[in-house]
Amino acid sequence: MGDGDEAASGTAIDVAAAAAGRTADVPWQAWAIGAALVAVELAFSGRYGYEQDELYFLVAGHHLAFGYVDQPPLTPLLTRITGILGVSPTAVRVIPALAGGAVAVSAAKFAALFGARRFGRILASLATACAPVVIGAAHESTTTPLDLLAWTLVLLSVTIALLREAPRWWLAAGAAAGVGLENKSLLVLLVIGLGLGLLASGNAAVLRSRWPWLGAAIAGVIWAPNLIWQAAHGWPQLAMASALHREHSAVTDYVLAVPAQFLYAGLLVIPLLIAGYIRLWRTRELRFVAVAVTVIVVYVVAWVPGRPYYTDGMVPAVLAAGSVTAERRIAAARRPGASRGWWLAAPLIGAAAALPVVLPVLPVGHLHDVPGLHKLNSDIGDTVGWPQLVGAVAAADAELTRSGRPPGSVFAEAYGEAAALDVYGSAYHLPPVLSGDNTYWMWGPGRASDQTVLVVDALGELRPYFARCRVLTTYDAPYQVQNDWTGVQIGVCTGPAADWRVLWPHLRFYG
Questions:
Q1: How many CA atoms lie within 13 A of 115 on its CB side?
Q2: What is the pTM of this model?
Q3: What does the alpha-carbon distance between residue 56 and residue 415 come to, in Å, rounded to a whole number?
Q4: Helices 336-358 & 118-130, crossing angle to 10 degrees?
Q5: How far is it, in rounded angstroms, from Cα 508 to Cα 302?
Q6: Sign of the Cα pseudo-torsion (299, 301, 302, 307, in order)
Q7: Which 3 state secondary structure label does DSSP give 405?
């Protein structure tokens, strides 16, 4: 061990003791923090409305398959299952809330493995539960909360396998990875990061054991149905990855990519985050995690900087490592009580400040008063106005029907708009809803008529293929909320150049 390692200060000794299982318990306070996070998430789950991906997954859940253009099948399947609780935002958000609570508890387990005592474990759990990226992820039924949990469980299992020399934990890591990959393919990035971390940190010998490969085999078997589906459909997720790169690689995305990493974890816990990263690097037994963190952050910043939350799966481990340092600084402080109070207060204050941006805590009529909300977190604003949009489309449909030209189909530009029309439109008896966006294109036009098409936000896409297209009205989100669905044109197109099946190959869109 070199001079730069932490053995001299006792970190290696603490890690070894924790790895031996002598003091690796999760304190009851960490369980309470996890439960509190779940309670807060569910308390606010019914405010505002669905986010566009939630609407999309509600529809996808009625088109069950082993894969979709933009994600594997797990989240749509779970969304379909939670339908037994009712079709409401609260129902579909139960599983994400539970996932967030599990992540907060897991952070305490990381801290225990890294050598933290009781306070450090509590701090790790609290800082993780208060991280804006965790609070925001656990609020919505998208692929993100389960992805966050899967990353946490894979990394935790690998850490236990290495530090405790408990090779069977590689099987748990493989199972968690397989289930995670059936939710979101991004977990491949973690697998690559961990592989490079093992090779670069002196742990390559473990790869000569059968256990990591048995874990990989388990992951492969679980992931196989989605892989087969992707192969059979021409690997559409690769096309989606390229589309996401183009969409989220603007100059401002690159400029804000690194600051966003800290912002998403919480501004007031930046010292904890930095301390954790340094400790991971300086502790030989934990350096494989530091390498993985570095690889993942560099990839996200370089390839898709507009999606900084893609690194959120590493946040619990880094904060847990920082809690060890915080604990030691408290012990060395002149006023340990005051120091301890600051470390606990910082994540709580940060979470309170971030709540209006990550959870629907404000009255909806005051959302427009939050400066830069749409840039800070577009998801909050995008949960407002879906029923009103569908109502505006239904009014246009009724007007055309009264004039003797009832639409035979509705074509929406984005999957969110199409899904909203599918979820809310049954009350208005709207015609079949179509879109060329992502998996909606794959579902095709069916037997929908193309003679008179009600068009939502897609006049530019259809004009080349219809003789006449005109605007009927423009929809703006209510309460002066600025979101992606403000200024949406609702129009009508007639006189198709060919039927839908001929036009369909030209209408595909990834976004």
A1: 25
A2: 0.93
A3: 7
A4: 20
A5: 27
A6: positive
A7: coil
CA distance 469 to 463: 6
Amino acid at 478: P
CB atoms within 10 A of CB 85: 12
For the cut 90, the answer to whether the pLDDT of residue 421 exceeds it is: yes
- Amino acid residing at 426: S
CA atoms within 13 Å, Cβ hemisphere of 18: 31
Domain boundaries, the chain: 7-356, 386-506
- Distance, CA of 292 to CA of 190 (rounded, Å): 7
The confidence band for 29, taking pLDDT boundaries of 50, 70 and 90, is: very high
Residue 488 is inside which H or E element, if any?
Answer: strand 488-496
Q: Residues 6 or more apart from 290 whose CB is under 8 A from it?
A: 197, 201, 277, 280, 281
Q: Which residues contact 50 (CB under 8 A, 6 or more apart)?
A: 58, 89, 92, 383, 386, 420, 423
3-state SS string for 229-250: HHHHCCCHHHHHHHHHHHHCCC
Please, is 346 exposed, middle or buried when counting C-beta atoms within 10 Å of its C-beta (0-12, 13-18, 19+)?
buried
Q: What is the pLDDT of residues 319-375, one digit of tens each?
A: 999 999 999 999 988 898 899 999 999 999 999 999 999 999 999 988 888 887 777
Residue 260 CA to residue 246 CA, distance in Å, equals: 19
Residue with tokens 């839908």: 500
SS3 392: helix
Q: Mapping DSSP to helix (H, G, I), strand (E, B) and coil, where does residue 97 land? A: helix
DSSP, res 509: B
Report whether 146 contacts 95 (CB < 8 A): yes
Could you give the CA distance from residue 456 to residue 29 in angstroms, rounded to a whole number? 50
| Cα Dmax for the chain | 85
Per-residue pLDDT band at 188 (split at 50, 70, 90): very high
Give 252: exposed, middle or buried? Use CB within 10 Å, 0-12, 13-18, 19+. exposed
Q: Smallest Cα–Cα separation from 128: which of 342, 317, 293?
A: 317
Between CA 435 and CA 438 the distance in angstroms is 8
Q: In the sheet that 433-435 helps form, which strands lie side by side, from edge to edge?
A: 433-435, 409-412, 452-456, 488-496, 466-475
Give the span between the Cα atoms of 110 and 315, in whole angstroms: 11
What integer is the mean pLDDT of 454-466? 97
Contacts of 402 (CB under 8 A, 6+ apart): none
Q: Which amino acid is at 97?
A: A
Residue listed under structure tokens 């994600």: 71
